[in-house]
Every structure is written in C-alpha cells, then in structure tokens.
Amino acid sequence: MLTRSRSLMIAAWTTLVTQIVIVGTGGAVRLTGSGLGCSQWPNCTPGSFTPVPEQGIHGIIEFANRVNGGIVVGVAAVMLVMALVQRAGRLIVTLAALILGLTVAQALIGAVVVWMELRPDTVGVHFYLSVILVGLAAVLAWKVVVGPAGPRTAPRWQSLLVHAMTLVLAIVIFVGVLTTGSGPHAGDGGAARNGLDPAIMQHVHAIPGYVLLALVLGVVVAAAVRGPRAHLRWSLALLGMILVQIVIGIVQSDTGLPVLLVGIHMVVSVVITALGVATVLSLRPSVRADASTDVADALDAAQAPASA
Description:
It is a single chain. This protein has two domains: 1-145; 149-302, no CATH class. The protein contains nine helices and no strands. The protein has helices spanning 6-31, 56-85, 90-115, 120-145, 156-182, 198-226, 229-254, 259-281, 292-303.
C-alpha cells in the first residue's frame, strides 16, 4: 500500500527548499568574489579542512556554502530513506534516489570548479545541474503532496502550448548562464570570462525572455478558458514571478549589475523553474481520494465538450 504521511510531505518540501536555498548561497560565493576562498577540495586549504584566519571573509563564505551543500546531501538522503521505509511508490523512490545521486555529483562538480579556478564553463554546468535538481525536487514534492496524475483531459493544443513554454524557459536559463559568464561577477578577481560581449548578451537573453512571457500569457488565457482550476492558479503564479524577474533583470542591467540584484535574479530563476514544473503537472489534476479539489477539476474537464 502506498503511503503519503505528513513526515514524508515535510521531507519532500524540505528537499525542494534546500535545493533552492543552495543556489542562493552558491550565488553569494560567486558574487562576493569568494569562489576561491577555499583553494582546495575537500580541504579548504592544503593543511586545514576549515578556513584559516588568513583567508578572511572569503574563506568563511565559501566554507559556509560547502557546509550547506552537506546539509542538502543529508536532506536528500533522509528523503530517500523515508520513501523506502514508508513504501511511497516506485516513482517517488526513483526521484529521491536520482536527486541524491545528482546532489552528490553536484558536490564533485563543485570540486572541479575549484580545481579549474572557476572557469565559466564549469561554473555554468554547476548552475545547470542546480536547475535540474530544483526541477526534479519540484516533481518529487508534487507527487508526494498532490499525488499521481489523473486522466489526460486537456486538448492537444493546450498541452503543446504548455510544453512550448517549458522549452523556451530552458532556453532562457541557458542563455542567462552564458550572459552571466560574460559579465563582471566571476567569483574571483583572476577568474576568466567566456569572451562574449556582455552588452550584446543582455539583449540576446531578453529576446527569449519576452517570448516566454508571451507563451505564459497564452497558458494563463487557455487555463482561464479551459481549466483545470489548479492549472490556472499555478500558471498565474508563474506569470507573476516572471514579471518580477523581468523587472529585476531590467533594473540590474540599468544599475551596473549590483550583486544583490544579480543574486536575487539567480534564485528567482530556479523558483520559476519549480513553478514551471507545477504548471505542467497541474494540467493533469490528481485523482487521489483525499484531493477533492483536484478530483472536481478532473471531472469538470472530463465532462467538457471535446471541441472545447
């Protein structure tokens, strides 16, 4: 029998939150120039696991992020153990195992980033994997809290619109990483940049961003007309966060890329990823017995005319 205890739900939410938070602490390392605050890995210095006074605040910031990484691995491990013990189902166990494995891999990639002295391509891979982990954690939280998907009731055009939105979101994040790799925040004064023109890249980044906005507006209108109700709620939340992100992007570009705004921009990008996952999954409402609202959504959609 599959179970969804409150403790499992808390573990799933904690997994998602910690995967988002470490993007913020990792961003703080880079934006404060602390990327090489610990010059070695796993030791902070050749002779010490922890930072030494000579490394100053940069060593403390980098080491704190490493400690946070250990917490994220621990949370992922607890999530997997709980999923196994509580017999949460093959999908949830698989997701939890994948998240744990990729989180450990992320720590190893962090070591490569240090060893390669913050090369922008390795830093980019480090961030891309964080985005993937947040997406997987969002799926995990959804499956644990909401439950398995119900029958497919959305018309094909609505599904294609949502998936087109997801594709463009991935492109926006990819171009955003390239844009960041061309800018001034290298993580250390001596770290290389990717050689692209940051002024041009800001405009290149904006183009798919506005395409994404148009597609999300389309998703919201489709959800308002067609449903399900949960899909409308999540798509509106996604729209709101994208509008916030656009404002942050414009302001940071016009004010010389202040570190605080750049850091917020990074965190909001993975929050948007999680909301995008929820928007996709809400297109097929759950039919779990204890999810009465989602059941009503599924029944309403199933009874709608096929031509709607």
